[in-house]
């Protein structure tokens, strides 16, 4: 089954360009294009796509408010990727707090957007590498403290958490630790469950908050 994608951006040319990129991929299907956040919320509720790619700056309802509305719906299964030209701290903060599966800059190459959509569809999450280390450490202090402590993890799970925090993919973690990719997925799932984390992005936040990031 192809991953169903909704595109939300107020620039028709940019939407057309993104759609053209998606149309080159057999496993991705653009099911809708919208030009404002309110339309994005309506169409996600109607179509239930696998992934919605939303620009931050849109009329009627901006992409962040649309993300919050979409992910507040208990029936929602759509993952949201937030795209922006501006890597502002407040944008990242709101996107993550809302539960977005990614925060990406529009300057990223098309192949990286395709990869990000696939990552989100699998239930993983990511932040553009160019903003991760600079921004995550700034807003972790303002997030609610965790009840779970890192010593709840096994030594292997802690290793995996550190590598997730270093922005490595499952395949890269598998190569680093000389284990299978399915084993990595199992470890990541257990780490998230033990620490009460929603996804990989929040695992990065957690690792920063607890001083686990490798320097």
TrEMBL record:
UniProt KW DNA-binding keyword: yes
Matches recorded under CDD domains: LuxR_C_like (cd06170), REC_NarL-like (cd17535)
Superkingdom of this protein's organism: Bacteria
Protein name as catalogued: DNA-binding NarL/FixJ family response regulator
HTH luxR-type domain sequence ranges: 146-211
Domain Response regulatory: 4-121
SUPFAM superfamilies assigned to the protein according to its UniProt record, in alphabetical order: C-terminal effector domain of the bipartite response regulators, CheY-like
GO biological process: phosphorelay signal transduction system; regulation of DNA-templated transcription
4-aspartylphosphate PTM sites in chain numbering: 55
Record keywords: DNA-binding, Phosphoprotein, Transcription, Transcription regulation
GO MF, one example: DNA binding
Lineage, broadest ranks: Bacteria, Bacillati, Actinomycetota, Actinomycetes, Pseudonocardiales
Keyword Manganese: no
């Amino acid at each position: 089954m192809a991953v169903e994608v909704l595109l939300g951006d107020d620039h028709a040319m940019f939407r057309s360009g993104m759609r053209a990129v998606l149309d080159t991929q057999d496993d991705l299907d653009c099911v809708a294009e919208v030009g404002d956040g309110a339309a994005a919320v309506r169409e996600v509720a109607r179509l239930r796509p696998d992934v919605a790619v939303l620009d931050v700056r849109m009329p009627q309802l901006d992409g962040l408010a649309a993300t919050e509305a979409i992910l507040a719906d208990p029936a929602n299964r759509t993952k949201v990727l937030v795209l922006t030209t501006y890597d502002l701290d407040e944008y990242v903060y709101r996107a993550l707090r809302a539960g977005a599966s990614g925060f990406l800059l529009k300057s990223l190459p098309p192949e990286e957007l395709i990869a990000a959509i696939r990552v989100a569809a699998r239930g993983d999450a990511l932040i553009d590498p160019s903003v991760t280390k600079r921004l995550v450490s700034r807003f972790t202090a303002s997030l609610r403290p965790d009840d779970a402590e890192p010593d709840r993890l096994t030594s292997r799970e802690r290793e995996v958490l550190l590598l997730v925090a270093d922005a490595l993919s499952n395949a890269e973690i598998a190569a680093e630790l000389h284990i299978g990719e399915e084993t990595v997925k199992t470890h990541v799932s257990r780490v998230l469950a033990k620490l009460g984390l929603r996804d990989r992005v929040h695992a990065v936040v957690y690792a920063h908050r607890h001083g686990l990031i490798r320097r």
